[in-house]
């Protein structure tokens, strides 16, 4: 949107410059005495055309340079002793665009052609007078100044771009260093503890099986949770350490894994149900990851804090959005504000980053509701 506005402003500015230069050249031409003839009319047309061509100077600098130069030579040959103002502006623009060789070659050709154009307009004049008049039409000092100004601005813009790239590279490097630091901290602080939990649960299940005892559901849930935590932690560390993934994207969990979340919730004694409505078609990966995390965090909160007996997960595929709703019959009472914990804040950040909306509040009939609506731009 901002680039569109800046482009429009540049086009308007070029148009105003073109109108102003065309008016100046026309006034200069009218200030001279010319017999009413077809050549005089053509001369006025060439003066106006040379100025009007500047309206396209940013889009086609080489073409504008050629047009303004030809108009200057042709109008001079028709007897219009008018300074080549339009050509000087075209030189500045072409130099700023980086066309140095074209500018030098075109300007040399114009400096050679102008004296001959003057001699065509005044057949009886001497060569010295023709060169003097041509020098007045296109002063070499003004030509060099216009070229130097364009080149100086081009160099300044190039240095500014390089400085911006350097800042971006520095920011990316710092982000990479911070990501690696986080990966090391996670590895050092969590990997060992999760491994201990997983190994101890595996051993307990194995010993119970050898003794012929029935393995408690809670122990199986602990073992499964340990395995899943280890997988997720490993995937997170790989994503954080992957230099080819500068955005540090989440592990590749999505809507296909929601069924597993509901199944694991049932192993804790929660009567969890999953309902899917609509047709899943072209949901972006970022939206899928956010939906998975919302369901995961919601079910985790239900299991830990809600003291609920039942929970329902509903996924609704709509034409332009994906709606996720998780309800429970826990102890939350209507009218009480939820405590904004880390999990709820994380869900809200994910939804906000995707341009969606999140509602998390107690239900009128008791329990708690988390509802997220994520906009979806369908991918083919």
User: Which strand order does the major sheet show?
Assistant: 1-2-3-5-4
Largest sheet: 5 strands, mixed
Ends distance: 25 Å
Please, what is the average pLDDT? 81
Residues in helices, as a percent range: 55-70%
Give the ordered list of helices and strands: HHHHHHHHHEHEEHEE
The proportion of residues in beta strands is: 5-15%
Number of strands: 5
Topology record:
Layout lengths: L1 H30 L6 H15 L8 H17 L7 H12 L3 H22 L5 H11 L2 H71 L6 H25 L16 H10 L3 E7 L7 H22 L3 E8 L3 E8 L13 H12 L3 E6 L5 E8 L5
Parallel strand pairs: 1-2
Antiparallel strand pairs: 2-3, 3-5, 4-5
Helix pairs in contact: 1-2, 2-3, 3-4, 3-5, 4-7, 5-6, 7-8, 9-10, 10-11
Write up this protein.
With 380 residues, this protein is α+β, with helices and mostly antiparallel strands. 65% of the residues lie in helices and 10% in strands. It contains 11 helices and 5 strands; from the N terminus they run H-H-H-H-H-H-H-H-H-E-H-E-E-H-E-E. Strands 1-2-3-5-4 form a 5-stranded mixed β-sheet, covered by helices on one side. It is elongated. The protein starts with a helix and ends in a 5-residue tail after the last strand.
């Amino acid at each position: 949107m901002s680039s569109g506005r800046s482009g429009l402003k540049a086009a308007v500015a070029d148009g105003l410059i073109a109108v102003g230069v065309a008016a100046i050249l026309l006034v200069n031409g009218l200030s001279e005495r010319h017999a009413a003839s077809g050549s005089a009319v053509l001369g006025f047309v060439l003066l106006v055309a040379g100025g009007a061509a500047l309206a396209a100077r940013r889009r086609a600098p080489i073409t504008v340079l050629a047009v303004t130069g030809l108009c200057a030579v042709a109008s001079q040959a028709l007897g219009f002793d008018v300074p080549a103002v339009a050509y000087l502006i075209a030189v500045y623009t072409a130099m700023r665009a980086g066309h140095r060789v074209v500018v030098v070659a075109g300007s040399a050709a114009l400096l050679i052609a102008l004296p001959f154009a003057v001699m065509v307009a005044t057949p009886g004049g001497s060569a010295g007078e023709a060169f003097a008049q041509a020098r007045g039409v296109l002063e070499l000092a003004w030509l060099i100044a216009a070229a130097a100004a364009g080149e100086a601005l081009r160099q300044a813009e190039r240095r500014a771009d390089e400085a911006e790239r350097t800042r971006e590279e520095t920011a990316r490097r710092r982000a990479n260093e911070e990501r690696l630091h986080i990966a090391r901290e996670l590895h050092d602080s969590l990997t060992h503890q999760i491994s201990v939990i997983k190994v101890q649960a595996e051993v307990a299940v194995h010993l119970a099986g050898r003794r012929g005892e029935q393995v408690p559901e809670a122990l199986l849930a602990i073992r499964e949770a340990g395995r899943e935590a280890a997988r997720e932690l490993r995937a997170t560390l790989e994503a954080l350490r992957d230099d080819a993934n500068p955005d540090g994207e989440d592990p590749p969990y999505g809507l296909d894994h929601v069924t597993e979340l509901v199944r694991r919730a049932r192993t804790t004694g929660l009567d969890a149900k999953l309902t899917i409505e609509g047709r899943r078609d072209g949901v972006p990966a970022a939206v899928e990851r956010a939906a998975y995390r919302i369901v995961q965090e919601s079910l985790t909160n239900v299991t830990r804090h809600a003291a609920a007996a039942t929970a329902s997960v509903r996924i609704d595929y709509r034409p332009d959005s994906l709606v996720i709703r998780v309800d429970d019959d826990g102890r939350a009472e209507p009218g009480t504000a939820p405590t904004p914990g880390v999990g709820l804040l994380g869900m809200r950040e994910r939804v906000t980053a995707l341009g969606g909306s999140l509602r998390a509040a107690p239900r009128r009939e008791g329990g708690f509701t988390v509802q997220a609506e994520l906009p979806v731009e369908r991918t083919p």
